[in-house]
Hints:
Blueprint: H1 2-8, H2 17-28, H3 32-45, H4 51-65, H5 69-82, H6 87-101, H7 104-117, H8 124-130, H9 135-146
Helix pairs in contact: 2-3, 2-4, 3-4, 4-5, 5-6, 6-7, 6-9
Amino acid sequence: MVSILFALGSPNLYMNPMHACLWICRELKGTNLQSTTNWYEVIESYKDLAFSEYARVGRALTLYEVGDREEAIAEMEDVSISLKGYPEIHAALAAALYADKHAALLAENQFAIATLLDPHFTDLSYVRDTKHRPPSLISSLQHFITLS
Length: 148
């Protein structure tokens, strides 16, 4: 992955995998729909590398934002198994399950995992400003946290 980041001119060759995937897709530029295609390209081009799993998280978040909620949730559920213990996917899945599937118990279980690993996910401003999650996911997380 370091060689990929170097080839693309990354300012930080040793960033964490999710940030590396986000940086790569930002370099590829584009709208949310183009972003979805970019995530697919990263996943297919580098499927042998571990960071392709983090690219799947990015793809799921992008699918959620553009309105393909069913596929996004399916992707999140799949990735939550392969990246067990990655709080970002568990928090996103909790929000999506609550808002879109009305599965409060499943959402609560996912959120418990996320907040055990990173208690900051209870703070919407942290999720919005630090984690830079899409607006629709922030809204879903707000509905989950406030139980509305």
